Input
Amino acid sequence: MKKDVNFESGWVVRLIRRFGPEADRYNGSKFRVRVGGGRRMLMPLALVLIVIELSDLLFAADSIPASLGITPDPSIVCTFNVCAILGLCSLYFLFSSQIDRFVYLGPALAVILTMIGSKMLLSDIYDIDTAVSLSVASLVLLAGIGLSLIASCRSTPTVEPAT
Output
């Protein structure tokens, strides 16, 4: 079941429209145009690009504590976030139409985040190796995806051919 999303009411869109007037139609692949006496206006394509890039930055900033929970090495954390900004998190948009099939993904992510939080809290008492953390997180994630795919295959109705 898909929900209708109203992008017009988002705070980012309202903020951009407050500071930069927006044209009401597309003009090819241009981000800005001059209209009526040289007034500059943003094209809707620029608005879309700004929202997508801000969401990439949000995903990258959100992943900093999780990556620090796995490894204290700042070069790995920096590399991870650079990859996130470059578009690994935009894979979400590729799978967004299928996200309802992954019913066990939420619990798997909760287990992973609990494990990372516990590792951070217990880091002064007991140090868990980075390879072990990554292995456990990967196995839990793969198990969540696998169980979700099995569950969605079982719940998909089969169509019998007409006779």
Q: What stands out?
A: Residues 102-156 form one domain. Residues 153 and 159 are 13 Å apart (CA to CA). The longest strand covers residues 32-35. The longest helix spans residues 44-70.
